[in-house]
Methyltransferase
Amino acid sequence: MEIVADDLESYLEHTTDEENSLLKRVNRETYLKETMPHMLSGHYQGRVLSLLSKLVAPKRILEIGTFTGYATLCLAEGLQEDGILHTIDINAEQQERVQGYFDESAFADKINYHIGDAAVILPTLDETFDLVFIDADKKRNLYYFETIINQVPSGGLILIDNVLWKGKVLDSKPDNQTKQIIDLNARLAQDKRVEKVILPIRDGLFALRKK
C-alpha cells in the first residue's frame, strides 16, 4: 500500500507529544503572516528537536536561522538550568514578534536573539556549543559547519536541516542549489571528525556527533 505523505505526517503528529499552547500559536501565526510558512520546523520535527536536546542536555546551544522561533523554543526545552541558547537570523522585520514569543516562554532569560549576518556574528560568540542547529541559507551550510566545528566538544551534536531537499538530491540532473546540498552531504559523509546519519524527517535532518 502506498503511503500518502500528508497522511503519514498526520499519523506521526498524532503519535507524538502535543505542542504546548505557545508553540501552537507560533505555528498558527506563522501560517497566517509569513509568505513561506513551510520554513517552520512544525509539530513533529519540533518534538524530535526537543527530544534530541533533552538527550544532549546542553549548557550552550547555537541555532543559525531563527525564522519565527518555533525550533528555538523546542531546542531550549533541553537546556540545563543555567544554559544559554544563541540564535541568529538576518531578518529584522520579524524581530519584534519573535522576541515577543521568546519573552512569553519559560526560556525568556536563556535565549540570546541576534539579528544580522551569521558570518559576522559567529566570530563574536566565544562559546563552546554542545548542540548546534543549522537551518539558514543552504549555500553556506558547509561554511557554517566548518566555522563552528572547533567550538563543539567531543560528544557534541550538530544538526543540519533540509539535506534531502524535497528528494531532489536523487535527481539525475540536479539544479545548482541541489548540487550544493549533494556536495555538502558527500563531504560530511567523508568527514572523520564526526559520526553521522541522515534522518529522513521532513526535508532531511543530518545528525553529526563530534568524536
Q: What stands out?
A: Residues 18 and 113 are 26 Å apart (CA to CA). Residues 4-208 form a domain with the Rossmann fold fold (CATH 3.40.50.150). The mean pLDDT is 95. The radius of gyration is 17 Å.
